[in-house]
């Protein structure tokens, strides 16, 4: 039985991005966000104190994948006689339906700092009231932690699921598989059969898998794959292009032999001890990790039992440091983590 009325919104993104290369020059003010708002059918007239949830998705995951999670949270809160005002989640500007809206103006140098600012803009745009709880998965945890550091009093609490908040470069292990993953199929039906036969995708909640097939794929033509004589008219590709997924995972630090220029230099953005010899880097996860002591909201970490990101040592360090610094919540010792 459906629990939510779903309202779709398209709003402007923050026009000033962290890096000029995130958008084609001259189009910063054209950047848009695809947003979904989930309003409980049983709470059409919310009361003061009803909770608003702000979601933030993982890299390459469309926002709709989290709908089974919203159902679970709704049921759990209802059992505790707590009400949800609404749930808001947006695709980051270069991925999902936002990426489709912005397809013709996207650059190749996004920053993980941008989406937190976009979420703050979203909250101001719709004048969303507190209390607010942020729920971020993987990359989305970075977005919400960064937003909380920008505005410490914004969230009452954060739920950070398998967060890529760490000193080592998380993009190392994902960039290569993403580079070589398949991204075009003759039809949505054939693509669905492939995903349903995969052990990885079969481990997902059934509705999440169905939403992946519906929203994680898009029909051709696209900017990358225009219809041609060699393309089936029923063909589909990934909604988030592999290139944009890769630009999100890693940023080049090598000198381009053709131009003689370097796109990014980790020495300008990272602590010396956090820099490795890999020719690609991602500065935001290590920076946010070093600022975990400053987090003011209560934090609930959810770690995957077999996660290659949240290994036991990394879990322990997050639990030990989060909220323990100046302006922080007091940390685990105070029952806040």
- The secondary-structure class comes to alpha/beta
- Helix content range: 25-40%
What is the CA-CA span between the terminal residues? 34 Å
Instruction: Give the overall silhouette.
Output: globular
CATH topology of the domain at 4-170 and 280-334: Rossmann fold
The total beta strand count reads 12
Number of helices: 11
Gyration radius from CA atoms, angstroms:
20 Å
Q: What would your notes on this structure say?
A:
- The protein is an alpha/beta fold.
- It has a domain at 4-170 and 280-334: 3-Layer(aba) Sandwich (Rossmann fold), CATH 3.40.50.
- The chain is 31% helix and 18% strand.
- Strands 1-2-4-3-5-6-12 form a 7-stranded mixed β-sheet, with helices on both faces. It has a 3-stranded antiparallel β-sheet with strand order 7-9-8.
- Strand 3, helix 1 and strand 4 form a beta-alpha-beta unit.
- Helix 3 (113-126) crosses helix 4 (139-150) and helix 5 (172-180) packs antiparallel against helix 9.
- The chain is globular and about 60 Å long.
- The two termini are 34 Å apart.
- The model has no long low-confidence stretch (mean pLDDT 94).
- InterPro entries: AB_hydrolase_1 (IPR000073), AB_hydrolase_fold (IPR029058).
- Residues 85-206 form the AB hydrolase-1 domain.
- It comes from Penicillium salamii.
């Amino acid at each position: 039985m459906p629990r939510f009325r779903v309202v779709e919104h398209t709003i402007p993104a923050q026009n000033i991005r962290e890096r000029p290369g995130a958008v084609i020059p001259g189009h910063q003010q054209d950047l848009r966000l695809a947003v979904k708002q989930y309003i409980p059918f049983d709470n059409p007239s919310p009361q003061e104190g009803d909770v608003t949830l702000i979601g933030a998705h993982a890299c390459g995951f469309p926002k709709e994948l989290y709908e089974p999670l919203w159902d679970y949270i709704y049921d759990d809160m209802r059992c505790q006689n707590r009400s949800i005002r609404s749930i808001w989640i947006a695709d980051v500007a270069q991925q999902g339906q936002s990426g489709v809206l912005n397809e013709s103006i996207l650059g190749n140098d996004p920053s993980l700092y941008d989406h937190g600012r976009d979420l703050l803009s979203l909250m101001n745009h719709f004048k969303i009231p507190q209390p607010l709880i942020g729920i971020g998965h993987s990359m989305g945890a970075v977005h919400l932690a960064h937003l909380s550091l920008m505005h410490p009093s914004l969230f009452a609490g954060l739920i950070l699921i398998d967060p890529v908040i760490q000193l080592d470069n998380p993009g190392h292990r994902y960039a290569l598989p993403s580079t070589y993953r398949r991204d075009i199929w003759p039809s949505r039906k054939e693509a669905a059969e492939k995903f349903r036969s995969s052990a990885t995708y079969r481990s997902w909640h059934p509705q999440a898998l169905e939403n992946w097939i519906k929203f994680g794929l898009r029909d051709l033509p696209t900017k990358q794959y225009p219809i041609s004589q060699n393309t089936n008219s029923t063909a589909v590709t990934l909604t988030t292009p592999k290139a944009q997924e890769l630009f999100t995972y890693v940023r080049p630090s090598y000198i381009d032999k053709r131009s003689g220029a370097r796109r990014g230099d980790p020495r300008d953005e990272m602590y010396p001890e956090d820099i490795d010899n890999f020719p690609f880097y991602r500065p935001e996860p290590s920076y946010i990790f070093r600022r975990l002591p400053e987090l003011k909201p209560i934090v609930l970490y959810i770690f995957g039992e077999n996660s290659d990101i949240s290994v036991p040592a990394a879990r322990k360090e997050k639990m030990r440091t989060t909220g323990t610094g100046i302006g922080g919540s007091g940390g685990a010792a105070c029952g806040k983590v």
